[in-house]
Each structure stands twice: as structure tokens, then as C-alpha cells.
Amino acid sequence: MTATSPAAGAANDPLRTGHYRSFLGKTWALTKPYWQSEEKWQAWGLLLVIIALSLGGVYLSVWFNQWYNDFYNTLQNKDAPGFWLQISRFCPVALIYIVVAVANYYLSSMLQIRWRRWLTDVYFERWLKGRAYYLLEVSRDDTDNPDQRIAEDIDSFTTSTLSISLGLLSNLVSLFSFVFILWGLSGPLSFTVAGHAVSIPGYMVWVALLYAIAGSWLTHRVGRKLIKLNFDQQRYEANMRFAMVRARENSERIALYQGEEQEQRNLRQRFHAVWSNFWSIMRVQKNLTAFTSAYGQIAIIFPLVVAAPRYFGGAIQLGGLMQISSAFGQVQGALSWLVDSYSALARWRSVVDRLTTFNDRLDSIDALHQHSNRTQLQQGGGISIRDTQLRLPNEKVLLNIASLTLEPGQHTLINAPSGSGKSVLLRMLAGIWPWWTGQVQRPENVMFLPQLPYLPIDTLRQALAYPQAAEDFDDQRYQQVLQLCKLEPFIGMLDESRHWAQSMSPGEQQRVAIARALLKKPQWLFLDEATSALDIGSEQQLYQVLRQQLPDTTLVSIAHRTTLRAFHQQEWQLAEGRLQAIEPQALPV
Fold first, then answer.
1. Sign (positive/negative) of CA torsion 307, 312, 315, 319?
2. Which among 160, 425, 559, 561 would be 20 to 30 A from 96, CA to CA?
3. Which long-range contacts (CB under 8 A, 24 or more apart) does 247-253 make?
4. pLDDT score, position 447
5. What is the pLDDT of residue 267?
């Protein structure tokens, strides 16, 4: 099999973010793939409609601003017919505004969930493809909780990116729409400095600009710590959830050890990190809220105070004063977008950083994936290993194999002490262990049974057929393999969906794995202490079943018990990091 180069794999990766250094570059790297994907036309269509609705909302705000002038002037003039006329004008426009707001929310939510679905599928593929999920764990990588990043961070990213981007666009349009209104309404500010007359046209615009700049700078100074604190909070929350799930998955073992107090200490320690970091967020958020609340309250009366001299001087009426106040609020609000959105921006930044670091680690895993696919596969024949060195992720040499050949039909037992590398040898042959060099050839139709089998939370029928579809085998075949493996009590449970790893004993789980092998009938079957939870009699019975039911299957067993020699023609022993053949001691089966 020809392996794809890491460079080629990287070029086809839609979510490579490693070469982006700036925050906007990272955000663009995460955003761009969806808008260039097979869903781009639907996505762009929805986005354009949403933008049109947002612009329509801005237009309605401009209309309301003009309406304030007319409405408050009728109040000042005590014009009752004019008052009711303005009310009649307001009601239908208000109804349109509500419809636009609801449609905007609905379509934005539709676009967000479609984007999240697409991005989640991409991350599922990246995480599972090339066994990145396995390599992240076995390499003891510091990338925390990939499940949380896919489940929550993607949701936060799509929601925040849309809301912040559309909010920024809406504020920019509002700014350009109302700045001209405010410029015309505010008029010039005239005063004398050192005997020189000074006139500042559209002075309310400059006041709003200075007010927003000062507020934005102070907001960043107060709240900039939130970015890292939010990043850490997501990690601490995910660590605590993972610890709770792990305790639930291992509930029986914990109960047998009576380890409740230790687990409670561990969980408290996890929660202490959540609690401590949350207090830090609270302190920063308290200061930020205090400032932004004061900033927002002052913004209500600030334009009235600044425009009051012109009102009391008779230059403008009450309607004009209220229109100035409304226009100033719109301009100042648009300019103060950073102030109002700082907390959301901090959370968004932390989510982008978490997804980017996850992407970077997946990119680095690509190179390891190429190494894990260097085994040459062939249609049939035996297994050949030449000049091969197996290492641990820390580059420590674990095993050297100068030459090893396994012929079809020649059942082989590998005997070795724990920690000598025998399981790593099988992982290398399976193509999931990338830390090795040498030459390896093996057939394609092979099957590996680990010591602890994986049983999905599904029907027993699907657990037996895994990873194939349950429909690939008929009821008669399922019943037959269950009988052969002494699992008769489970025949009536084929269509029951359970957490079988908790419902079955370790010995029963290993019997299910043997039954799975009987269903699939591989050419080669590797058993890594796959019967260690059974007594000697049951173990020998299952090996007899394998030899009788799978006459064309070659067995390669890793085990400690010498009683299994009777089912193998040759035996290899691991000693001092090397594989050595020992004299055959097979007994008749």
C-alpha cells in the first residue's frame, strides 16, 4: 500500500490553521471552509437574506428616529389630532419591525445550526480518520477533552461568529446612517478662545466619537483578562465532566475497592479548579459590568446635557432634542460596540483559541498517521517482519525484530512478561502504532481481539457484528455463535439495547469477542490475552471451537498460560527486547 505524504494530506485538509498567527487569521481559517463547501449556495443565500433583514432593521430605526421628532413636537404643541396620527403611523411600522426581528432570529438560527452540523461532521472525520482519537490518547497529548471541543466549542464558535459579525455589520450601517442625521441636527458649536472665534461643525458627532474611544479603551483595560479566564474555564468544566463520566463507567471497580472517598477528593479537586477560576471571572466581570453599566447610563443623559443649551436657547424644539438624543444613542452605540460586546468577544476569542490548538494538534497527528500506514498489505500469504524496531512515544526502544515469518496455517503462541512490548507488536501489525521503523508485510483479512473487547451501547446483535452492520448476518448465525461460546442465556436478548460492558462479566465480554470472530471468519486472528478472564477449561473449550469452526484461520496468540501450547504449532518468546523462537511443545488437540 502506498502511503500519502504528510504534505499532500495537509493540502487536502480544510481546517489547517497552524500557519495562521493572528486572531483574525485563525478565525478566518476556521470560518472559510464552510463558505466554500458544497453547502455554500444555501449558506450565502441565507446570509444575504439575514443581511437584508438587518439592513431593514436599521432603516426602520432611522424611520423611528424621524418619528421621534414629529411625535414629541405634537406633544410640545399639544396637538391631539397630530398625536393620534403619529400613533397610527407607529403601529404598522412597529408590527413590521417585530416581523423582521423574528425572521432575522429564525433564519440566523437556521444558518447557525446548518453551519454547526457541517463543521461537526468535519471534526468528527478529522478526529476519527487516521485514528487521531487513538494517537491523541496514546501519545499522552496535552490536548484536553476533544469531545468537549467538538460538542460545545463548535456550537459556541458558530453562534458567536454569526452574532458578532452580523452585530458588527449592523452597527457599521447604523453608524453611517445616523452620523449624517446627527451631523445635521447638532449644528455647529461656536466659542471663543484667546479672542479667536472657533466653530466646530457637527460637534455632537465628535463628542460621540471621543466618548466611544475612551469607553472602548477603558473597557479593554478592565476586561482583557477574561480571554484567558474563559479559555481555562472551558477546560476545567470539561475536566470535571470527564472525571464524573469516568467514575460512572468504572463504578463497579470503584465500589469493589471502596474508593468513594478518593473519588470524592478527586472530584472536589476538579471542581475546586472550576470554582477558583469562576471567582476570578466574577471579579473581572464585576469590574467590567460596573464600568459598562455606568458607561451606558451616562450615555442616556449625556447627549441631552450637551444639546440642552441649544434647546433652551430656542434653536431646536423638544422633538429635535429627542431626535438628537436618539441619533446620538445610535452613533454612540455603534461606536461603542466593543464596550457592549467585550464579554462576548472574550468568550469568542477563547473558543477560537481552543479550536485552533485542537486543529494544530490534529495537523501534527497527520504525520504520525502516515507512519501508521506503512505496512504493506497483500491479498493472502503470511506475515513477514524484517529489521524492525518498535519504540514508545518517548522514543525509547521497546523491541527489535531482525527477522520473523509466520506462514498461513501455522498457529503461533507468543509468550512474554508484562511490559515487554508484545501488545505493541500486535498494534504495529494492526497499523495503529506509528512509532516503528522497518519492513512489514501482512494479509488484509486479519482480525485483532484485545484483552478487553469494545462493546457498543446498542443491541446485542449489533455488538456481535461490530463494526459491520447487524443485517450482515442472519438470526440463525447469531444463535449458533452464541451457543458455541456458551452464551445461551443471551440468545433471547439479541434485539435488546444495553450498556453491555456493564451488563456482562469480563469473561462474558471475552466470549462475545470470540463469537464476533466466529461470525467474521478472518484469515488471520490475533488474540492479545483475549481469554485471560476465563478459567483454563473454558479457555481451552473456546480454542477448540476456534480450531474446529475456523479451519482456514491462522491463530496468533499472546498469552501467559502454557496450557495454550496445545493449540499452536510454534512458540515465540520475548526476552530482553528481542523475539526468539523456542522448541515446539505442541500437544495434539
1. positive
2. 160
3. 251/502, 252/502
4. 92
5. 83
